[in-house]
Write a structure and sequence with these properties.
With 125 residues, the chain is α+β, with helices and mostly antiparallel strands. Helices cover 34% and strands 37% of the residues. It has three helices and six strands. The chain has a six-stranded antiparallel sheet. The N and C termini lie far apart (32 Å).
């Protein structure tokens, strides 16, 4: 039930972030659904989801706030382990950011200061 509530809250935030009363495209919905399936680092809080579009490319972004004690390298290593166990091919680890692909989807996870950011593109691989 909690997972469903979080998913509904994330979808609502994504819709609000679009700035339009139009229904999100299937592409935008797939991007938000991809974000909903990635693991969340323990202690990360206050997720904020936005949808973006640039010409024919769409992606969704979700930001969390990390605890003051979270170390960027530890967070990134945690994601490498968890994503690989879920079938993601993780590559490009640099500057506290990783990139991964699985099927047609692509994902970027990065840490800047106390912000954890995930960017998903369901058609980006």
């Amino acid at each position: 039930m909690l997972r469903r509530s979080l998913l509904l809250a994330a979808l609502g935030a994504a819709l609000a972030g679009c700035g339009s009363s139009d229904e999100p495209s299937a592409y935008a919905r797939a991007n938000t659904a991809l974000l909903a399936r990635i693991p969340v680092f323990p202690g990360a809080s206050a997720p904020k989801t936005t949808a973006q579009k640039s010409s024919d490319v769409e992606f969704a972004t979700r930001d969390w706030t990390l605890s003051a004690s979270a170390q960027p390298e530890t967070v990134i290593d945690w994601y490498v382990d968890r994503l690989q166990k879920r079938g993601w091919k993780v590559k490009g680890k640099s500057f506290n950011t990783i990139r991964g692909t699985r099927g047609h989807g692509s994902l970027s996870v990065g840490v800047r200061n106390r912000t954890l950011e995930a960017i998903a593109n369901s058609r980006g691989a």
